[in-house]
Write a structure and sequence with these properties.
mainly alpha, Alpha-lytic protease prodomain-like, 7 helices, 87% helix, elongated
């Protein structure tokens, strides 16, 4: 049964609240566990969660603007600023993953096992596809390019969580520390294109 645009906007707002709440938890747990375990893989996953959080906040503001009829100029400036911040963070994240992984292998640094990291990445593998599916249903009604981009971010979170879970699981079960570094480098398959796209968007959204 088709729903109205107004109902779809309300549902979209609820989904973005859920996204923001989850990303706060995911980022805090992944970053905390990553630092504690000296895990490049978990830390990279946590930083990407911060970027996803930023995306969720921007889209919430956009949907709220349409819901209340407020002027969108401020939201446009926020989105442009968020794009620039995301681009810088993604580039730095790619550099961090490469340099830290090479250093970890070269100096034989051994990350500690992290049960918290396994739990949060496993939860994301299950939850993110469901969240993306619900957002797609909303976007079939409102047809928002911003929401479409946010859906891509949600799917990317599931992919990164899967790679993170695989790396942590292999490392935990086998005791092979290099498994985390290999998995961290595998994140670049997704992170590098994201960084390139963000840099292109940054150039298009540079003026405030």
């Amino acid at each position: 049964m088709a729903i109205s645009r107004t109902a779809a906007i309300r549902q979209g707002l609820r989904l973005e609240v859920a996204t923001i709440a989850w990303m706060v938890v995911e980022a805090a747990v992944a970053l905390g566990a990553g630092v504690a375990a000296r895990s490049v893989l978990l830390t990279a996953f946590g930083v990407d969660s911060v970027i996803e959080l930023l995306s969720g906040i921007v889209l919430y503001r956009r949907l709220a603007a349409e819901s209340t009829g407020m002027p969108t100029g401020e939201v446009d400036r926020l989105e442009a600023r968020a794009v620039r911040i995301s681009a810088v963070l993604l580039v730095l994240l790619c550099a961090y993953v490469v340099l830290s992984s090479i250093a970890g292998v070269a100096f034989r640094l051994t990350p500690s096992p992290s049960l918290a990291g396994v739990v949060v990445s496993a939860a994301a593998v299950v939850a993110m596809p469901l969240l993306a599916r619900a957002k797609r249903a909303v976007n079939r009604v409102i047809e928002s390019p911003s929401l479409r981009a946010d859906i891509a971010e949600t799917i990317s979170c599931a992919y990164l969580a899967g790679v993170t879970l695989a790396g942590l699981g292999v490392s935990l079960l086998t005791g092979w520390p290099w498994a985390q570094y290999v998995a961290a480098l595998a994140l670049l398959v997704w992170l590098v294109p994201e960084a390139r796209e963000a840099l292109e968007d940054r150039s298009h959204n540079w003026p405030d």
